[in-house]
Design brief:
This is Putative integral membrane protein. This protein has 182 residues and is mainly α. The protein contains six helices and no strands. It has one domain. Helix content is 60%, strand content 0%.
Length: 182
């Protein structure tokens, strides 16, 4: 067995575990958010930003914390699982944050759009905002420190097989000029 192949299998397992956990979390989120609910009445859709958060805060401390916390935590694991499944160890922190938050926002938007056809589920723009904020907070709190820790580990071969973002992709190709016929 050549040197570094153990690192390659560990990297593959690392990414596979991230992909599995991501799929499991998305199935759970789908079940929570897209199952029909049997409710005696439904409130109207909330399309005014921050109106639902203001209404939650008017309910009092415990209820507001519970409702806002649920919305923040629903998609927060994506802030960690998306970079984990991607497997990049050396990457721009801002680029990683932007990619992860954009993916979380698009997934949250997709969930809100799918909820329009689910009985008992109501579209809420504040859910979109809070879900996206939860993804961003989880990413900022965990991913940069974890990547730094993994880069400083004693076993550099463990993650040597993970893809890296190259700053240079080589020279720009040129096209030979072709003369124009008279």
């Amino acid at each position: 067995m050549r040197q570094g192949s153990g690192g390659r299998t560990a990297a593959i397992r690392f990414r596979a575990a991230g992909g599995f956990l991501l799929a499991a979390h998305l199935l759970l989120v789908g079940w929570i958010t897209l199952r029909p609910l049997d409710v005696p009445w439904m409130s109207a859709a909330n399309l005014e930003p921050l109106a639902g958060i203001k209404a939650d805060l008017a309910l009092g401390g415990f209820q507001a914390t519970r409702r806002i916390g649920e919305a923040l935590l629903l998609l927060a694991p994506l802030g960690i699982l998306l970079p984990l499944a991607g497997g990049r160890l050396v990457v721009s922190p801002w680029g990683s944050l932007v990619r992860t938050v954009a993916a979380g926002a698009l997934l949250s938007l997709g969930i809100e759009l799918l909820q329009t056809g689910v009985p008992g589920q109501v579209v809420d723009i504040d859910s979109l905002l809070l879900n996206t904020l939860g993804v961003a907070l989880a990413h900022v709190a965990v991913v940069p420190a974890t990547r730094g820790w993994l880069r400083r580990r004693k076993d550099p071969g463990l993650f040597a097989a993970l893809p890296r973002e190259d700053l240079s992709q080589g020279p720009t190709p040129t096209i030979p000029r072709v003369g124009i016929a008279p």
